[in-house]
Design a protein that fits this description.
Chain A has about 550 residues and is of the alpha/beta class. Chain A has a domain of about 300 residues: Methylmalonyl-CoA mutase (TIM Barrel), CATH 3.20.20. Chain A contains 21 helices and nine strands. Chain A is globular. Chain B has a single domain, classed as Cobalamin-binding domain (Rossmann fold), CATH 3.40.50.280. Chain B is built from five helices and five strands. The longest helix of chain B is centred in the middle third of the chain and has 14 residues. In chain B, about 50% of the residues are buried. The chains are: A alpha/beta (about 550), B alpha/beta (about 130). At the A-B interface, helix 4 and helix 17 of A face helix 1 and helix 3 of B.
Chain lengths: ~550, ~130
Amino acid sequence: MSYSKEELSAIQEAMDKWQVNVDRTIAKQGERKDPFISSGFNEINRLYTPLDVQGEYNEKLGFPGEYPFTRGPQPTMYRGKLWTMRMYAGFSTAEESNKRYKYLLDNGSSGLSVAFDLPTQIGYDSDHPMSEGEVGKVGVAIDSLADMEILFDSIPLDKVSTSMTINAPAAVLLAMYMAVAEKQGVPFDKLRGTIQNDILKEYSARGTYIFPVQPSMRLITNIFEFCSEQVPQWNTISISGYHIREAGSTAVDEIAFTFANGMAYVKAAIKAGMDVDKFAGRLSFFLNAHNDLLEEVSKFRAARRLWGYIMKEHFKAKDPRSWMFRTHSQTAGSMLTAQQVNNNIVRVCIQALAAVLGGTQSLHTNSRDEALALPSEESVMTALRTQQVIAYESGVADTIDPLAGSYYIEAMTDKIYNEAWDKIQKIEEMGGAEKAIEIGYIQSEIQKAAYQWQKDVESGDRIIVGVNKFQVKEPEPSGLLKVDPSVQKTQIDKLNELKSKRDNEAVANRLEELRQAARGDANIMPYILNAVKVYATEGEICGVLREEWGEYVAAVSL
Amino acid sequence: MTIRKIRVLVAKPGLDGHDRGAKVIAQAFRDAGFEVIYTGLRQTPESIVATAEQEDVDCIAMSMLSGSHLTLMPKVTRLLKEKEMEDILVIGGGVIPSEDIPLLKEAGIAEIFTPGTPTSLCVEYVKNNVTEKA
């Protein structure tokens, strides 16, 4: 990367000459755009040269598995083990979803990823008035341990790793998972998986919050502490930029806002008395794999280098594992079109390539029909096969960080690194992520970019194939998946039966103990686990916590 | 005589947190010169109709991506009917399968805008279809 002063000035001189040539060409025929803006809102130069990539190789890039991890978190990366192909799935009842999981595992999925329905994500049972119409729609409905037992029936929990997209009530669902493991005879220290557990981005971008900020942060640090002792292989949080980007943010803001949230969790845990090295190694991340291939590859690399820096230099963590940025990624659902849906297969392939060339640890690929409905089994298969073709046929997994050294990739990696860090410092000056969310700064930045995107599409500055260019008249799509509308009734019947059969006195006692714990400052996890085990429902547990802690009130801003 | 600006309530019924579309359309309506009220997340049909009444709106635009549109959207129009507020134009948008659109129209939702629709089209539609209020 380093060039001598003489070489650089020679390059500059040659470039000045080339510029004359460029100007002459542009005078005859202008370029397609002015300026060129990436899908992540970075301005892209005409050409990148050694003049754009200065700095020491060892300091900025180093080696895979070593600080600053720009080239990857593990020493051998995909040569040792491919990324985990983890397909996000879940709908209808636990029975239906259990079938889909077995189908995915039989077809070479290497980890599970559970999608819960909205009532479950917001701590309501299926019979709550707010649940009307939502039961089993965007994920599986889980009301109690009884549903969780069915969800993982005949799936040995010591053999699979399971990721659960659950945030506000993450503690409850983790407790249910642990209770299922106990019934299967699997010790807690054999459990591998992740809970999303990232409440701050729910306030700013995803919307499934329940409790106010303070008790929510307490729940999160309680989980960090509890798992470091009881479930040591569990990723206690998945700090997510995915939804921030989906909501419309720029690529730089995806990293900046995610890391600002991450820093808030680290600060909260340290404030609660934990040593940073006790929990930092279990922090994991979740990024978006968007359309702009080269920008996205740079983004993953910049993220690794920046998180390493933050943990080592800012929080003074000593264990190298605490410096390591490990991430799941998912292709950008918001970039899929309802028009000419087969084009989405191509988009997903490019996005998946970006994640793999960027060095992701696990990946979900979206299905072609997701702008229309929940994915059908057939389109899920194509999405999974896309990863397998990249893994086994394309050759990109055979050498580590293959795009390193490209002038463009290195310059963009530096740009995202620097701009994200500047923005993080700005947020820190405001008082950190919690404050920036409270005053609506994060939300308004996301919103501005989302609206700009829409205007760019409508003006034709951004071309979306099949949407604002190359449109065709097409027949109505067919073969879409529909959730049986009777799911809600089935769930309510199950719930009523459960309530008539379980030991209701034990439930009342465990809930009362939970209430007392919520009022005090003991770790709340053991109380939730005890309540779950006697089949207290998720709605009952969250109901007690709602009564004690209140609910988050979002400031509505436009 | 002053011409009253068109007043639109942009609403998110149900538990869905995807509000990118709602916020984008709200801004497009505002840029088109409408008065825009945005409800925020987790609205019940009852709360939407109550806000519509209180704010004296000409149009309710609901955005839904969670699949519960067949339950919640018709409930809004039913409540409007009960309150004799049927002159309010009701439209919807989001991930809504085409086979559901006739059912929604039958229930009184005037138009459904699916992904990829330019906001300018929605703006034109509202301008052409709201009932003039005195």
